[in-house]
Amino acid sequence: MSTRKMSAALSHGPDSPFALETVEIEEPRADEILVRIVATGLCHTDLFTKSALPKKLGPCVFGHEGAGIVEAVGSSITHIFEGDHVLLSYRSCGACRQCRSGHRAYCERSHRLNSSGARTDGSAPITQNGTPIRSAFFGQSSFAQYAITTADNTVVVDPAVDLTVVAPLGCGFQTGGGAVLNTLRPEPDSTFVVFGAGSVGFAALLAARAVGVSTLVAVDPVPERRKLAEEFGAVVVDPGSDDVVAAVRDATDGGSTHSLDTTGIGAVVNQGVTSLRGRGTLVVVGLGVHDLTVNMADIMLNGKTIRGCVEGDSDIATFIPQLVDLYTAGQFPIDRLVTPYAFADINRAVTDQAAGKVIKPVLFW
To answer: One Pfam family name from the record (predicted)?
Structure first.
């Protein structure tokens, strides 16, 4: 199999910074697509996985919010063509019970397709001096100048759309927007509260605003994020100084009908549950606490619901174009959430995101 050289941001372990190095990527197989990456969002999932994998596994290429231009397609690809502008997202098999029922985000082969560090046959599309590199992350590993993808995780978009802005629709913005539009589905007279106004939380807030939800609330400790949330029409709550439950109940006339937790922090999840109105729903999308103690009497007697949500419960083939349309119509202003960084500045982007200086870093070549 022939290869081409490229630069990629390699992770050499949980405690080391990313390093831009030269690697080789294979040309696409019959069922694969080669994409020249223009931009890639930096997602918490990239950093969480980086921190969780032991150094002994060797270098890895992460990145799963890629956006770029198709460079080459395999012989069995029929609806994606060289030159297409595309967004990359998660893989799904299309054949399991979850996929067949329209719930591709819960694909029964998800781990093998997205998190194994290789193709399904065990081979690596990226090597360095002949040595396989853990890659194929979310079927793309887009912290690189090129990515090998497949038809099931590649979505064609209008070439007029700025790929640097829409790249995070592959995961973060999709997760927040989908949690609202696909899972919670609030009505205009609903009340919506987001706990944690990072990129996922802001995407959710903008989605709720796009469908006309009358009352929006954002709970976040960072003053700059609260200020931006106010500009988007939300009531803001500072968890460092406010009684969160009381403040949410006051802002929502007795409790929220729909809430989203992006933090994965047990105490915050409990604030979300407690501040729900009767028959209200809290969706959780943050990975953090493994065990949670909740007031079952409050949940049962008040008919409250807690449910998880992966990738916004979305089918990327239809939902990503829906979000792109909302953005181009001016109803989903995600451009105000994005800060671009050259790929050479990836470690500064990581630092700035951790410090709360930016909402969504997007790396570009």
So the answer is: ADH_N
